[in-house]
Amino acid sequence: MIIRAEKDSDITAIETLTYSAFKDHPHHESGAEPTEHLIVNRLRDANALTLSLVAEANNQVIGHIAFSPVLINGETTNWYGLAPVSVLPDQQNKGIGNSLINQGLAQLKERGAEGFVLLGEPEYYGRFGFKAQPELTLTDVPAEYFLALPIKNSIPAGEVNYHAAFFE
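-> structure tokens emitted (168 positions)
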């Protein structure tokens, strides 16, 4: 398996795998269709994908991760949202998501990222150092599921806003 930056020729594969990774996801309403693939497309269309990596094996895209900038208290920061991370259902639980997350975090740290936020399972993302930070909030989200990973010692305080692509 290799992890590399997405190419234009990957877009359809990313869309398909993201849709299938989130189909029947336990956090979606019963019967609801996934929208995560649409979020990635809208981020790309808005030039708001700071980093988009794919995992490839045997010339097939089997995983994807997206990072986009977030605002804190309405201001531009050097913090990024990790979302979504997707792995083909038949390839899950093989460490592909872990590899994508570690590679994405490392690349953005090299570029000077000051921190990361995500909405997710504390048990899973805790292994990467993510945890709830009372200084940072996301409207209408239980604090224990809004997780942050600061790179520098200081954590900004305030309300986090994701790109509009998450809400269209």
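The longest strand covers residues 60-72.
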